[in-house]
Design goal:
Chain lengths: 118, 424
């Protein structure tokens, strides 16, 4: 089963070097174990844009944005046996945040890919 | 949460940790079979304790500590009390004193150890079934029960197979090998063979059977990804991954609502997974970049890619397929490849061009009981308007096809040919 993990956070401070090292090692392990299929860190929302439909009207908003709520920081795509494994994998990923990125708060959402088919 | 749910959750946590666990232990003990034993013991310990205590905050560290503790036990009990093991026991104690807090993420690169593991599991000294079971166990973390269900054999059979394989490895001094360079490329073929075998077992599993069987395709794909990741310069690893991705991309279209198989040319191509096709094409490109265009798996992937890239069955580039089958036939002598080439030639140049090829193949002893030979012949004859002969060929094919859907299909074609003959 294919899953997307989506990390979002309101935290703005840069990550410590040790945390980045831990992230790289985890990513490396998961690629070599054949489980992580893709991943990406996203540029800050301020550098991006949004296209919205509200009240039946389409509008384009260029960054930076005023609301500093939780923002998607990145994603990963994993191929795993099921939701339990996804939860275990993300739990470990978040534990690393706890251990190496003190003060960081955020969410990693787990979403399975919808299966195509008759 | 039921006991079954808890069991599944614990197994999932263990599975996430399993690659690091087994690679670290193998490196530490210089013994792959023993490392495998210990990862299993760690799993059993977790299944025993965690339902009561809950999953620990750092399950990886817990499992590793448990495994190490058991390892020391093994060594102390003196399975092979020679100098080497005494030294390793001492090193481990020193290590444990220096690093009481084991940290999963900061461990060293597991690539080398995974390479060692997969090549050990697929050692040519082991029987093919043993290699399959050991690979699924050590690389994919499947349980004995899961492997047994996937291959429709009893649990005990798999358990024995794995135990015997580990014993063979230990007793043959193959417990910790490192194939490199030339040897790696040579040994790679036995690894790829195992991976492809697992894929095909899953691919040919009928829908509605135990879901673990088609799941084998995913395990094989995973092993393929592991291989391309740890041996990125081996073109055939990329070729095999391409072949598997491209074949798997048709999964949603392969069966109808009743679970009956649909022939590729009749499938609804809108259901083909385009992202998987794209990944397959990328792997195929990589294999070619590495100079492997003539490899057996890469050629087969190239053939499938011709289908994958055709918007409709009518868009299929049959001449290209025929050419690729000719190339494949040159490196891999096989009458079945020749037969497939004949089909492609028939589609590309017309049935008259293909019939001589098929007639020559009729003399092949290995194809004597292969129903697709008279079936292809019947199809070509029908297209040439030689209906009486087509009828005879289809009847012969039906007789060889055994029972079931194929048989019925062939009898129907035989009847159609007979009708066509009568209306002349």
């Amino acid at each position: 089963m294919r899953f997307m993990f989506i990390v979002s956070s309101a935290h703005t401070a840069p990550p410590p070097a040790k945390f980045m090292e831990a992230m790289h090692k985890l990513a490396d392990r998961e690629i070599k174990a054949g489980r992580m299929v893709d991943s990406g860190a996203l540029m800050p929302l301020a550098t991006g844009a949004q296209v919205r439909i509200t009240d039946g009207r389409l509008s384009v908003l260029d960054g930076p944005f005023v609301e500093a709520k939780e923002v998607i920081g990145g994603y990963a795509i994993f191929e795993l046996k099921g939701k339990e494994e996804a939860v275990a994998a993300v739990t470990e990923f978040m534990q690393l945040h706890k251990d190496y990125f003190p003060g960081w708060e955020g969410t990693c959402e787990i979403r399975a890919f919808a299966q195509a088919g008759p | 949460m039921t006991a079954a749910d808890t069991h599944r959750a614990i197994l999932a946590v263990w599975r996430i940790e399993q690659p690091r666990l087994i690679t670290s232990l193998a490196r530490m003990l210089r013994d792959v079979p023993l490392a495998e034993d210990l990862t299993q013991e760690a799993l059993l310990a977790a299944l025993e304790r965690w339902p009561a205590t809950g999953v620990p905050e750092k399950p990886g560290a817990w499992l590793m500590a448990t495994a190490k503790y058991r390892a020391m036990d093994h060594l102390r009990r003196g399975r092979m009390l020679d100098r080497k093991h005494e030294m390793i026991a001492w090193d481990m104690e020193e290590e444990q004193q220096a690093m009481p807090d084991l940290d999963s993420a900061l461990d060293d690169d597991i690539g080398d150890e995974l390479l060692r593991l997969i090549f050990t599991a697929c050692h040519p000294r082991l029987s093919r079934e043993a290699r399959v079971a050991l690979a699924l166990r050590m690389i994919c973390g499947l349980t004995t029960d899961e492997i047994a269900r996937a291959f429709l054999v009893p649990d005990a059979t798999i358990a024995q197979r794995i135990a015997r394989a580990k014993r063979t490895l230990s007793e043959s001094g193959l417990a910790y090998e490192t194939p490199r360079g030339e040897e790696l490329s040579e040994r790679l073929s036995s690894v790829l063979e195992v991976v492809y075998l697992i894929f095909n077992e899953g691919y040919t599993a009928a829908r509605g059977q135990d879901w673990l069987r088609p799941q084998l395709c995913n395990e094989a794909l995973r092993m393929g990804r592991v291989l391309t990741s740890i041996a990125p310069l081996e073109s055939e690893a990329h070729g095999l991954l391409a072949l598997m991705e491209l074949n798997a991309s048709r999964t949603a279209a392969r069966t109808d609502l009743a679970g009956e198989p649909i022939l590729m040319l009749d499938q609804n191509r809108a259901l083909w997974d385009q992202l998987q096709i794209r990944r397959g094409m990328q792997s195929l490109g990589r294999a070619r970049e590495l100079g492997g265009a003539g490899g057996i798996y890469t050629l087969q992937a190239a053939i499938i890619s011709c289908h994958a890239q055709a918007r409709t069955a009518g868009d299929t580039d049959w001449s290209r397929i025929a050419g690729l089958y000719a190339e494949l036939g040159a490196v891999m002598r096989s009458p079945i490849i020749d037969l497939n080439r004949a089909v492609a030639v028939g589609m590309a140049e017309g049935p008259a061009a293909a019939l001589p090829i098929v007639d020559r193949l009729a003399r092949e002893p290995t194809l004597k009981f292969y129903h697709l030979l008279p079936s292809v012949r019947g199809d070509l004859l029908h297209k040439l308007g030689r209906y009486e002969e087509a009828h005879a060929a289809f009847e012969a094919a039906a007789a060889l096809a055994g029972n079931g859907r194929e048989h019925d299909l062939l009898r129907r074609r035989a009847a159609e040919a007979a009708d066509a003959a009568m209306s002349l």
